[in-house]
Design goal:
The chain has a single domain (3-257), classed as Rossmann fold (3-Layer(aba) Sandwich). Helices cover 43% and strands 18% of the residues. It is built from ten helices and eight strands. The protein has helices spanning 32-36, 69-83, 95-106, 126-141, 143-154, 157-174, 181-188, 218-226, 241-244, 246-257; strands at residues 3-6, 9-16, 21-25, 48-52, 88-93, 111-117, 204-209, 231-235. Helix 2 packs across helix 3 and helix 4 (126-141) packs antiparallel against helix 5 (143-154).
């Protein structure tokens, strides 16, 4: 796996495929592999897919300080430039959507098109703050408890019921704590990119997940309202759309970046 030094971080990333660059940005308690690995084959036929591990995740290492959206955006930009020549399309999921939007704002010459899935602009909503604070306390007490809570509320009830007891048990067993989860949760509580959104000039697609209990509609709506000329669409899914509706999400992304 290649890596690049960005400030105090050694940022690891995966590169697969050929063609123009497509950067896939994971969210909290994810990595380039755990979030996007099962979707890569849907893009590598005509895109060079870049999957960075942000600080706190995967094989990226750093000094362990406080994270900022700007720091993570710099990591995404550096990995993109190291992996491919020319502008790239960026897809961000959850916290990764926040980081992707910031990357497009801070690096306008780098980003050709932008897809923001289940993101938000500002952690000001009382319910969302309660959720992140609960996650932080659960993580401190027992990551297994947090893992179960995220699975319970991250998938739609219909999808989770369809997994059945064995499928749910398998999903729980697959959960492994990312090393800097606590730092990412602290950042979740401080997110505010409202001042950056007007600086996004790349064509953008904002995706709401209609059954999302973690980032309900107000989150994507705020991104859409803040980015001039952005498109808005919905997928009938819980927050963990990467696993609940992978084929539909892949088709939606391809339809926008190949348009």
């Amino acid at each position: 796996m290649p890596s690049i030094t960005v400030a105090d971080a050694n940022v690891h990333y995966e590169v697969e495929g050929t063609g123009p660059g497509l950067v896939l940005v994971h969210g909290t308690q994810g990595s380039g592999e755990t979030s996007w690995g099962h979707l890569v084959d849907g893009f590598t036929g005509d895109r060079t897919v870049v999957r960075p591990d942000l600080s706190g995740s995967g094989k990226t290492t750093d000094a362990g300080g406080e994270l900022t959206v700007e720091t993570l955006a710099g990591q995404v930009a550096a990995a993109a430039r190291a992996a491919v020549d020319g502008p790239v399309d960026i897809v961000g999921f959850s916290l990764g959507a926040v980081v992707a939007a910031a990357t497009a704002a801070l690096e306008p010459g780098l980003v050709r098109r932008l897809v923001l899935v289940a993101g938000w602009a500002h952690t000001g909503n009382a319910r969302q703050r309660l959720m992140f604070e609960l996650w932080r306390e659960l993580d401190r007490a027992d990551f297994g408890l947090l893992n179960r809570e995220v699975i319970l509320n991250g998938f739609s009830p219909r999808f989770l019921e369809g997994l059945g007891p064995a499928g749910i048990a398998e999903t729980i067993a697959a959960g492994a704590r990312e090393p800097g989860l606590d730092r990412q949760l602290d950042l979740d509580l401080r997110v505010d990119v409202r001042d950056l959104l007007p600086r996004v000039t790349a064509p953008a697609l904002v995706v709401e997940l209609t059954r999302d209990q973690l980032v309900p509609a107000w989150g994507p709506i705020a991104l859409h309202d803040g980015i001039a000329g952005s498109r808005y669409t919905e997928i009938d899914s819980g927050h963990l759309v990467l696993f609940e509706r992978p084929a539909e999400l892949t088709e939606l992304i391809r339809g926008f970046v190949l348009d």
